[in-house]
Design a protein that fits this description.
By secondary structure, the chain is an alpha+beta fold. It has five helices and nine strands. The protein is globular, with a radius of gyration of 16 Å.
Amino acid sequence: MVQRHAGDVGDEPVGHAVLDASSAERLSDREVVFTRLVDAPRERVWMIWTDVRHLHRWWGPAGFTTTTHEFTFAPDGVWRFVMHGPDGTDYPNRIVFRELDPPARIVYENGWDLPGAPLDFTVVVSFVPDGMKTRLSLHMTFRDAEALRVAVERYGVMHGGTQTLDRLSSYAGEMMRAS
């Protein structure tokens, strides 16, 4: 069953604002895909995604901040960081970059940055040019249906994912206006 969620658009009628929002589709009991058309060229969106100085400006759902402890953007490189929720809760994360194909694709595994914690899901990020814009997609595959269920019910992954891409898009827009 496919479930769709629009990011931060409420119950507004379908129109320009809704079409510009991020979306999420639940493809299976362990897969979800987030998409967003970003008003910036692919190379700019790639830079925003791959440079830690930019990541801190948009990473995470609305109201979250990020502190990085380690960042090596290379195959088998690690990004260890803490997402700080607006309620004061800290979420330690570990990403291991598996494949990098600049400026088209990133594959990484993500999990808790806790002793003995497994990597919970794999993400394939695709950067597809669409004129002077970039169609960005994040295809998340969880280790099993239970891992996705917990991510949805306990951590709000469906809304968090759309909010994260909305923040990236907003930041990309700021950068484009400033250049």
